[in-house]
Design brief:
By secondary structure, the protein is mainly beta. Helix content is 4%, strand content 58%.
Length: 704
Amino acid sequence: MKPFTLTAIAASVLATVTYPSVQAQETPSNSETVVTAPVVVTATRTEKKLNEAPSSLVVITDGQLEQDNPKTLGDALLDIPNVMMEAPDSPVFTRISIRGSDSDQITYLIDGVRQDNYTMSGNRPAFMFADPEMIKQIEVRRGGGSSLYGNGGIGGTIAVTTKTAADLLKPGRDFGAKLKAGYNNDADEFGQAAWLYGRKGPVDAVIGFSHRDGGKVVSSSNGKRSKTPRDAQYDSFTSKLSFTPSDDSIFSIGYNYDENKLDQGRTDNEAKYRLKQHRLSGSWEYSSGDWVDLVVNMQYMKLDNKFDGTSYNNEAYFKDKFDSYSINTQNTSVFGLGGTHSLTYGFDASLNKQKAADVYGRPDRSRPKSKGYDAGLFIQDEYAINPYLTLTPVLRWSYYNRKPTTDNNDKFGLASRSDSKVTPGITLTLSPSKQLSFYASVQTGYRPPFLDELYTSIEYPEFGMYSVVLPNPDLKPEESINVEIGVNGDYKSLFSDSDRFVFHANVFRDRVKNLINAGATGDMDFTDDGDMILYYSIDNVGKALKTGFETSADYYPGNADFHLSYGYLHAEDKNTGEKIPGLTPMQATLRAGYTYKPWNVNGWYRMRLFKGGKSNLETAWNSGEYKQLGGFATHTLGLTWKPQIKDWADFTLTFSVDNITNKKFRGTVADTYEKTKRSFERFRYLNGGYGVGRSNRAWQSATF
């Protein structure tokens, strides 16, 4: 049994992915398209074809990324039902929600390593940074469960795999280069990227750099287009070196650097963001017979983050430093005992340190100096009782420790905290044929508080009112139970000799307790000068129940392709029985395309549909009543042309128009005419985020 990375590298040379649930390998122009299923590992930590994964799993591959040219990782996920986004155009402000989760309830992985640098404090970033230009594949697992990947992930898992030289080299070549340039007018953004890569004997190396420079955001809240003053710049550098001394072993080391600069607003009311991230990673994979299939991953990450709002408040400033050390290892042993067992077991551990300074260089109490330690042991058995029935139990023991390391901890109510938890899970898979499988699973999840959830302490005076955030050393971890039943199908030659039909459907019930949320305590006081003091704290606020279903279908009749997906979500607060605001109840995507092989031209259409409902925008501050926002649909047309100059270069030229109808926001007009009162804001997401007007994207690349 070979390590999954070795197989995945080999597969990537053979196939180019064009749609989320399948891969398509292009053959000469006088033949049909051959479709193969992508290889995934997120569902069970072991290598499987997507259509065999016993989980609600969606894959975005490099062909889809190449076609859509997303600006951020979040922008690449907009077609996935029950995966919602806030500010997908910005690496700093992107917030992802899976089945109504918060972005900090998701486990993020890059090349198999957890990313622990996300946070919830104010203007800090709450997301991992991975430039889409450097990504080979994205796996999105909807549904909670931390049995496999450790503390967190009660909402879902997002796993990113980055590119190697083998993913970029043209067949028969040992060295190559790729250049890319593009423009999108919704953010007035130009982008360039370049790669150099090669493979010589056992050595595989790739170096890549990308740069984006944007100037505005086109949006509106009153029915008229506006251009928010913004200067945005994003640079990303990646390098990866792999060494394969034998067929059963591979070593790799990689370095990534991301730098983001964002200045937003007028000069007298400007917010400035600066972010720099260094990530050094290494891995070793070794296999020997059925008993040893070993994977070891290590990573060091350093993040420097700065916010400067002194143009409007001379104390609105902080500078963060975050360091993370992590390791995970697993081994899979295959043996026969009343059937076939694939036993996967291992451990993971991470150490995170953070500190911050205010505008005067003093320790910033909103993110005090502290450190956190997480560790766990896990074991999973994929027990194939017979060719038709597989039982997969999993068990994990998780531990966490949080410790403030500042002076005067007692003065500010900061205290150490630690705990542990056992999180079991089980999945039953029934496969009556190679084309069809059913699964049912119950998974448990566990998310300890982050460092700044436990230790945040703020006193913020402004406009005659003080906001005081009190630390809560008694904060409990969030816990979840996810129940899911699903079906996967993959049929070839259904209506003709060359077509293929792939589908997935599932229903789910996710329950989360001890939800962590920041809010007002209800206490109020006054200063000696008569200014009001409002108190806030981060508390466990109760339980949430989320139910729904997701379905998708792909059909490939020759050179055409069709994709349809739909998701339904109902989320309620179990304490009050009220629906949780800000979550899209229904979401659908339709894609259709056709490739004219003699000219290597592909044309495609996409529709995204969102149902309206109760938003997270209050009708008045602290009223507890929320605006009802209408649903909307956006339409996109695109065209891709791939000319070739034999024995020299392959070119790709793409142009697309998004939001073709130029859907505008329409605000409520406060007058006496009843007909205008029903004109609530439209094309505004229920989570409060804005969409954009009609936008054009154009990009081209050359591979040598």
